[in-house]
Design goal:
Length: 401
């Protein structure tokens, strides 16, 4: 039986922890299992490269669209990633990953790591997933979870055809977390093949240890590492500070994504008490961006002061508008050309969904949907369609009515 989100179409609106010293040495990185042979994607007929359709310059009438029900029965889903076969890997915060294929959800998770995931607080758990660009050949995927003592673990596992040996874990990185909140958790492979990792400022409130601005800790940062050139990983030679750090001045990046066409990196950074923000690192960046936390919250003073060159968000919204926590999304690149190039993001508490369109150096921001769900994450399949995941365990896809 089909189900739909209740949507209210709204008018246009204006946009709206703690770290530690550098992490302890990484742990052994050799998997104990290589899995079994992966199914290969079906062969395709070579075609001449084609230009992607032009990005839209206006917002479609959202009254003609809906978030259409896909599946339910999940337990606190917080991430959705596609594999080369078109299956969707859905992460449950408690430590499971399920597969969604042809509209059917696997009864048993493809992997269960509850035994090592610490989810004692609301912001802890299995928080992020990234499949290796050569996943069809090597079966490698990477997870971000809070484990022993609440520390962040970045680990690699090796997938077989329909299961994963949980003993194949290779720990790449462990970062000490002093408090049980602001763990970040988002991970993505970039167009350059490197793994990007979002870490929050370590927790508490107001960043009392100044981790967001400190270059002596990995907390409050976007990291960029090379998982192919060395074990457990290598530092790309062009990283701006000679270590893992790619960008800094972040409070709690909750979901980031690369635009599949332009390569721009969009980041949803959760605010302290007043402002939620969307930041961008444009394709071709040399890294080193400072997004201002905790001197600034959004485009507004928090502690005040700070160095020159801090970068304001491309969109923000105030808690006075009812929101509480931004959920970063994706640039739509699916089958509906009227949505092509629109970045979709939302708010966890209100269920509101906004769209962003680039207009030269400026940005148009519009509130498009007011749903009745708590949005834990967005997702995107290999065809560019965009999904919403909810704290209630449902998944929806953007579709025309």
């Amino acid at each position: 039986m089909k189900r739909f989100l209740i949507l209210l179409i709204l008018p246009v609106l204006a946009c709206n922890g703690l770290s530690t010293p550098s992490p302890s040495p990484t742990e052994p990185a050799s998997p104990t299992s290589t899995g079994i042979a992966l199914p290969q994607p079906p062969p395709t007929t070579p075609t001449s490269p084609t230009e992607p359709p032009p990005a839209t310059t206006t917002f479609p009438n959202s009254n003609a669209y809906e978030w259409r029900f896909v599946v339910d029965g999940l337990e606190r889903p917080i991430d959705l990633q596609p594999d080369p076969l078109g299956r969707l890997w859905i992460v449950e915060k408690l430590g499971h990953i399920h597969l969604l294929q042809n509209g059917e959800l696997t009864n048993e998770p493809i992997i269960n790591i509850e035994d090592r995931v610490n989810d004692e607080s609301n912001e802890m758990g299995l928080l992020g997933l990234a499949l290796h660009p050569n996943f069809a050949q090597n079966g490698f995927f990477y997870v971000n979870y809070t484990g022993a003592r609440g520390d962040t673990f970045i680990s690699r596992f090796t997938a077989g055809e329909n299961s994963v040996d949980s003993n194949s874990e290779a720990i790449l990185l462990r970062v000490k977390q002093p408090y049980p909140n602001h763990n970040g958790g988002t991970m993505n492979f970039g167009p350059d093949g490197y793994l990007y990792i979002g870490l929050g400022d370590g927790g508490s409130g107001g960043d009392p240890e100044g981790n967001g601005q400190s270059l002596d800790t990995l907390l409050g940062k976007i990291l960029r590492i090379d998982v192919d050139s060395a074990q457990p990983y290598a530092i790309p030679a062009d990283n701006p500070f000679g270590d893992e750090i790619w960008a800094y001045g972040l409070r709690n990046p909750w979901r980031m994504s690369f635009d599949a066409v332009t390569g721009d990196l969009y980041i949803g950074d959760v605010g302290q008490g007043e402002w939620e923000e969307i930041d961008i690192i444009p394709a071709g960046s040399r890294g080193g961006e400072n997004f201002g936390w905790n001197y600034r919250e959004g485009a507004h003073d928090f502690e005040g002061g700070g160095p020159a060159g801090m970068i304001d968000p491309i969109a923000e919204y105030s808690h006075n508008e009812g929101g509480c926590s931004v959920t970063g999304g994706y640039v739509y690149r699916g089958s509906m050309p009227e949505w092509n190039g629109i970045y979709l993001y939302g708010d966890y508490c209100t269920g509101q969904v906004w769209g962003l369109i680039r207009s030269g150096e400026a940005w148009q921001n519009q509130l498009l949907f007011d749903t009745d769900v708590t949005i834990t994450s967005f997702g995107q399949d290999k065809n560019g369609e965009v999904y919403i995941l909810t704290d209630g365990g449902d998944v929806y896809i953007l579709a025309s009515k």
